[in-house]
């Protein structure tokens, strides 16, 4: 019998030497990038004319991430490649000026995960108990940005977020699209063959309805304010389980009993980044507006027609009751393109003449994975 252990050790030793050499080069380049980030902060401070310089520019970050993914030669996926670059950028930005971000909490929710995905682990995140609190925290200047959910591919729009824009002057500065995977999790005191109640957010329970009908048809389904709250609440109950994301399992020390139990495999949620700054064109942008229509026949057709004629692609049209009177409605509309591009400007000018009111919520880079 041939002993291959020495040959294996030799080959592995060579590969490990190569990895060490590559790591050394990567480390040196990361340090060089960090020094450049500090220089950027110094230049911005020198030319700020007494005003607070803007360190974080969403359009610039989106451009950097897109360029990084375009250079990706594998075997890492574009999503993983972007995640690595985002963390480097987050750490470098923290050297310039750490970003403080409010999000719909508590910790361990999908909104928390979206905040970290967009801003990286070096951002300072602050959980809020309600969507309107996220808006207030950013409006007051206590946080530079906020992260709120706006729609789910299975359950539809988050009305509280849309309604918050009705009374807020904040801009939409970005978006995050997060693939949502739900997991059934238990604690170390759970008797897994005696589960009679399952905690989760109402939307999560709805997104797992068929799986629950098949596997736990007799278990009581209890809706709580968040999936993280569900994970915390069931830890001391021997007959309970929770549905939440993987982050909640790690945060609260739970065991995943069944993973990816959502009924729709492509289930995803879109989150919005809100802030006070305007965002320049990144090259791949989206614009959101809210339009109040006149109470007359054909009003909706009149505001949509210019977009169609000018070739502006609408990606979402959502109606909400207006606060100005019964049976009056406003429309939240998303479309491709930046407000500074000529055809978008032309479309909005025409719509403004036909509508009762038009409010531009923001132009921002399309979500990068």
Provide tags for this entry:
369 residues, D-Maltodextrin-Binding Protein, domain 2, Alpha-Beta Plaits, 3 domains, 6-stranded mixed beta sheet, 5-stranded mixed beta sheet, 12 helices, globular, cytoplasm, EC 4.2.1.51, lyase, isomerase, phenylalanine biosynthesis
Order of helices and strands: HHHEHEHEEHEEEHHEHEHEEEHEEHE
What's the number of structural domains? 3
| Full CATH superfamily name of the largest domain | Periplasmic binding protein-like II
Shape: globular
CATH class of the largest domain: Alpha Beta
The CATH topology of the largest domain corresponds to D-Maltodextrin-Binding Protein, domain 2
Spatial separation of the terminal alpha carbons: 51 Å
Catalogue the unreliable spans.
none
User: Gyration radius, to the nearest Å?
Assistant: 24 Å
Structural class: alpha/beta
Subcellular location: Cytoplasm
EC number: 4.2.1.51, 5.4.99.5
Protein name: Bifunctional chorismate mutase/prephenate dehydratase
Function: Catalyzes the Claisen rearrangement of chorismate to prephenate and the decarboxylation/dehydration of prephenate to phenylpyruvate.
Task: Describe the structure concisely.
The record marks 269 as: Essential for prephenate dehydratase activity. The protein has 369 residues and is of the alpha/beta class.
């Amino acid at each position: 019998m041939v002993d291959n252990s020495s040959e294996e050790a030799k080959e592995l030793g060579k590969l490990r030497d190569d990895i060490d050499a590559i790591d050394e080069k990567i480390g040196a380049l990361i340090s060089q990038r960090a020094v450049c980030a500090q220089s950027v902060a110094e230049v911005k401070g020198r030319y700020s004319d007494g005003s607070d310089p803007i360190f974080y520019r969403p359009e610039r970050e989106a451009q950097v991430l897109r360029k990084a993914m375009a250079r990706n030669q594998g075997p890492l996926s574009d999503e993983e490649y972007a995640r690595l670059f985002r963390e480097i950028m987050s750490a470098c930005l923290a050297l310039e000026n750490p970003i403080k971000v409010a999000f719909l909490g508590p910790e361990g929710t999908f909104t928390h995960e979206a905040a970290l995905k967009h801003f990286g682990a070096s951002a300072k995140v602050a959980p809020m108990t309600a969507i309107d609190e996220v808006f207030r925290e950013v409006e007051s200047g206590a946080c530079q940005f906020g992260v709120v959910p706006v729609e789910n591919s299975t359950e539809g729009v988050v009305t509280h977020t849309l309604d918050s824009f009705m009374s807020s002057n904040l801009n939409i500065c970005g978006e995050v699209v997060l693939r949502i995977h739900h997991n059934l999790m238990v604690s170390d005191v759970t008797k897994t063959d005696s589960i009679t109640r399952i905690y989760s957010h109402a939307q999560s329970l709805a997104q797992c309805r068929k799986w629950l009908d098949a596997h736990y048809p007799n278990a009581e389904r209890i809706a709580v304010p968040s999936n993280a709250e569900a994970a915390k609440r069931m830890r001391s109950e021997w007959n309970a389980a929770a549905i939440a994301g993987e982050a909640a399992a790690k945060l609260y020390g739970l065991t995943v009993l069944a993973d990816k139990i959502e009924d729709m495999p492509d289930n995803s949620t879109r989150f919005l980044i809100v802030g006070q700054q305007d965002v320049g064109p990144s090259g791949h942008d989206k614009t959101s507006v809210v339009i109040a229509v006149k109470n007359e026949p054909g009003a909706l057709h009149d505001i949509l027609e210019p977009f169609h004629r000018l070739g502006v692609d609408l990606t979402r049209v959502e109606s909400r009751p207006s606060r100005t009177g019964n049976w009056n409605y406003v429309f939240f509309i998303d479309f491709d393109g930046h407000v500074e591009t000529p055809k978008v400007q032309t479309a909005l000018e025409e719509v403004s003449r036909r509508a009762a009111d038009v409010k531009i919520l923001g132009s921002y880079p399309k979500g990068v994975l």
